[in-house]
Amino acid sequence: MKVLLLRFGELYLKGNNRNLFEGQLINNIKEMLAGEEFKFSKTFGRYVISNYKDEREGEIVTKLGRVFGLHSFSRAEEIDATPESIQAEVEKIDLDGKSFKVIVKRADKSFPIKSMDFASSLGGVMLKKYPSSRVDLYNYDTEINVDIRMNGKAYVYTTLIKGQGGLPLKTAGKGLLLLSGGIDSPVACYLMAKRGMTMEAVHFHSYPYTSERAKEKVFSLAKILSGYVGQIKLHVISFTKIQESIHVHCKPEFMITIMRRIMMRIAEKLCEQNGLGAIVTGESLGQVASQTMQSMTVTGSVISSLPVFRPCIAMDKEEIMAIANKIDTYETSILPYEDCCTVFLPKNPVIKPTIEKAEKEESHLDIEALVKEALATEEIIYIK
Ligand code: ATP
Ligand code: MG
Q1: Helix H segments across 230-378?
Q2: Which residues lie near ion ligand 2 (Cβ < 5 Å)?
């Protein structure tokens, strides 16, 4: 019977949490495949997906490729774990003119032949059957895997598809993503989701300075991200009044610093209101003036109750772009609609602000009232 054999990696390390993690991973797999016809079963250390429609296989593989916590998977033939049936299955593999290697893994030690012995015996059978083939343990065209499990079944396969890795979604709490329309914040979302975090998101817009299309672009990004993290509750907040006030009352070079600090304050409030445990941003050290060490000290200092996660912090733009491409957000991120941060943008933002100077600029504003007013503009959109 044709099946998909799934492996999970890091779960092994999690001691007492293992059951919790595994239960969640299984739920996540089933949720990802909702609407598909299939049977799910477990053997120690592996999951098996079977009884699916042939023509759905490609789509199922694509969906499994988005499940965090799955290490790799293979299209395999499931057969009874007897030497005869395994050999018969292996013999179906076409090795004409090919170099190959055979790997046997025996989780079931009651299987009568030792792994190494069985691998070389199968190799001998194949060499005889395909005289033009040859064994090469390092430089092979085909790797024949025989996986003998504890359930009385064996799995024969030649392909290995890499999964997402990471930890199952929903095992690491829920955070709030600061989602702009740029390249970095969607990547930050994906990276934290890969460690098991789910997320709500907040987007600040500056309508009418920014267009409706800029907002729609953010919805599109959230939609793509929901393919990885599930439904996203998106909080959309008007930043217009805040930007206008800063523009009028503060020194231009402090515009971005003060904006960021107010974004952080609003984010912290949203976390309180929605039971969220961390703030996530797409900041990367040194990328722009607002992302120097000093700038991040000054923006981060308004947050006292939560950690701020910045998973892109040590990445080059190229590395971030490569991930954006992989998760399919790049093309949307580069659409040229104004972000709220580009409105009123100063020519020379401070590179090394201090908390004292930022506080001095902020003394010209009624921060509490601005935060409250901004929160009152909140629209909530569920995106899936
Ligand atoms: P990105 O590509 O994510 O927009 P960026 O390199 O353009 O990042 P900035 O514009 O300085 O960087 O923003 C830094 C971080 O602040 C973003 O990654 C995002 O998390 C947050 N942020 C910026 N603008 C907004 C916004 N309009 N709404 C929500 N979060 C924002
Ligand atoms: Mg940006």
Answers
A1: 240-249, 255-274, 293-300, 317-326, 330-333, 355-362, 367-376
A2: 180, 182
